[in-house]
Design a protein that fits this description.
The chain has about 325 residues and is mainly alpha-helical. The protein has a domain of about 100 residues. About 55% of the residues lie in helices and about 0% in strands. It has 19 helices and no strands. The protein is elongated and about 70 Å long.
Length: about 325
Amino acid sequence: MLALVRAHHAARPPLRALAAARALPAARHLHASPSALAKKKKAAGSDDLFGEDDDSMFADMFGTGDAPVPAEAAAAAPAPARTPAGRRLRGRLDEAQRTERFAALLQFVGERTGLHPPARRAGKPEQVRDTAWTHLFGLALTKEQLEQVVELFPKWRESRREWKPKMVMAFVRRCEELRCPQLALKVFTDHPKYGVDLTDALAARQLLHALHVEHPLQDAITLSALHAVYKLPAVAQDFVACAMLTSACFKAATPEALTVANALVPALQELAAKDSPAAWAYPTDPQARNQRKDKAWLTWTLTKIEKALTKQSQPVDWLKQWREQAGHAQVAT
């Protein structure tokens, strides 16, 4: 049990304070022993490089604003196409354009963040807007490019800037899209180095979804332990997260993993009893499903758990009835 629960990043400073027995002692106590994080440095202002009113994620990467735009950065970004009337044409960037803009923006941010940014010595404007990170995440096409962005994270902290929840969510989502959620886990388990806080329960749930099927169980266990570190609600208190972790433990099927899964089942049953099945009905409309992906996640995850409980000859009527009332049984079998 201890070997399973021990986080695979145990050498990192934030996780050394987490005893393995505290990480998952039982379903109701995942959040029993929070560890103190280093105090966040107070953020400076965030009105810097990119405006919130960009026409698209990839348009006008070096748009005008209060902060002057250096000539080399403006030259690096291809000028957007315009109609005779001067209106910018909308369209997707091809791979070469994305790579070019990514490299230019990565250099721009790197030169203007940190304790002693090179731009300061050169007398260039230093401010970088929060949305620069969102643009970088979106422009990254590979895990390797996203790793380059992550290497700049410590400089943002050195600049006494804050990671806002929407920035963290954008990072987690891009890690999932590029199939490298372990990169996000690496960042959150090394707070002294990267300074990125996992303070949004939805971002934590998104990351657990990215980890719980295709990656080792210990990654999901590590993330569950981080809920206590970042003072998030325990996994056993979140219906979707509890279901995903339970399913991952049943899938691993080792004696230790099954011990954890069976410890989580009572908490899952309590959460199901508290939530109306109708509130978690599977969204058949694609647009609605895209807006509430967690409902689809829960639908398929509970299906797997029902099969696992049936295989173990454990009571499962409560789950069958709940899934039928939610309409899950008609969608996932």
